[in-house]
């Protein structure tokens, strides 16, 4: 049935009704005309072909109603997905803007603080508290973990 | 004429054989959220002053704040996309 997706709706409607009508006409014409001498020889093929077309027409008409309903729902779903993708994209843009803006602020903060520490270096170190290698090692272990990458 | 009884049966079979071929792509996360996080900077072995420790802590706190920001934005991205997904699929029959 997915092949039906490729055919325009108006064509499908026309084809389904046309097959059904031709089937009905052929089938009942075969029934009626079987008593007329000239048509008598065509009676059986007309009825067989008419009956097959009648069955096909019934099948297509049954499927067509559902097909049209599904087309409507598919379009509705596609519209919703398009809206969702657009909103998601807009959100991504906002997130990127926020990250870029706030990262700059954080980096400025860090730079200002490190600059202040550099300026106040003598004052800070005046207490005479020196870091021993053990302190540095412990500090680094606390930061990167004891697994030592 | 009995064969005509097949007509309503075929009509109903035709009704029942349609599927909906609509798929939804997984939303793309913003590029900055997919970057590798920076590692913290260890204190150099030749650092022996408190100011060195302060400098190092400040730089690492900055890195933590950057990661915190990205983590919060990950949560925001997830919540928004989850809400959008629910809004899109909730009324689907």
Structure report:
- The complex is a heterodimer of chains A (149) and B (93).
- Chain A has one domain (2-144).
- Helices cover 83% and strands 0% of the residues of chain A.
- Chain A has helices at 9-33, 37-40, 43-119, 121-125, 133-144.
- In chain A, helix 1 (9-33) runs antiparallel to helix 3 (43-119).
- Chain A is rod-shaped.
- Chain B is mainly alpha-helical and 93 residues long.
- Chain B contains 3 helices and no strands.
- Chain B has helices at 6-16, 31-34, 50-89.
- The two termini of chain B are 40 Å apart.
- The model of chain B has no long low-confidence stretch (mean pLDDT 84).
What's the arrangement of secondary structure elements?
The complex is a heterodimer of chains A (149) and B (93).
Chain A: H1 9-33, H2 37-40, H3 43-119, H4 121-125, H5 133-144
Helix pairs in contact in A: 1-3
Chain B: H1 6-16, H2 31-34, H3 50-89
Q: How much of the sequence of chain A is in beta strands? A: under 5%
Helix content of chain A: over 70%
Largest sheet of chain B: none
Shape of chain B: rod-shaped
Please state roughly what percent of the residues of chain B sit in beta strands, choosing from under 5%, 5-15%, 15-25%, 25-35%, 35-45% or over 45%. under 5%
SSE sequence of chain B, one letter per element: HHH
Reported for the largest beta sheet of chain A, the result is:
none
Oligomer: heterodimer
Mean pLDDT across residues of chain A: 86
The count of β-strands of chain B is 0
* Helix coverage percent of chain B: 55-70%
**Poorly predicted runs of chain B:** none
């Amino acid at each position: 049935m997915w092949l039906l997706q490729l055919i325009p709706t108006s064509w499908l409607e026309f084809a389904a009704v046309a097959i059904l009508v031709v089937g009905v006409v052929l089938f009942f014409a075969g029934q009626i005309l079987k008593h007329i001498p000239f048509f008598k020889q065509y009676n059986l093929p007309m009825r067989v072909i008419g009956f097959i077309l009648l069955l096909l027409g019934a099948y297509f008409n049954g499927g067509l109603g559902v097909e049209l309903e599904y087309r409507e729902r598919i379009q509705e779903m596609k519209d919703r997905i398009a809206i969702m993708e657009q909103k998601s994209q807009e959100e991504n843009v906002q997130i990127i803007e926020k990250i870029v803006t706030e990262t700059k602020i954080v980096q400025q903060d860090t730079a200002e603080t490190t600059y202040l520490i550099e300026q106040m270096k003598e004052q800070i170190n005046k207490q005479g508290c020196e870091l021993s290698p053990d302190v540095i090692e412990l500090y680094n272990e606390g930061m990167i973990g004891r697994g030592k990458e | 004429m009995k064969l005509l009884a097949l007509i309503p049966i075929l009509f109903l079979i035709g009704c029942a054989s349609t599927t909906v071929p609509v798929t939804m792509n997984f939303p793309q996360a913003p590029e900055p959220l997919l970057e590798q996080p920076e590692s913290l900077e260890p204190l150099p072995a030749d650092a022996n002053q408190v100011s060195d420790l302060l400098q190092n802590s400040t730089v690492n706190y900055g890195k933590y704040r950057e990661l915190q920001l990205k983590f919060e934005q990950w949560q925001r991205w997830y919540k928004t996309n989850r809400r959008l997904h629910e809004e899109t699929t909730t009324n689907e029959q």
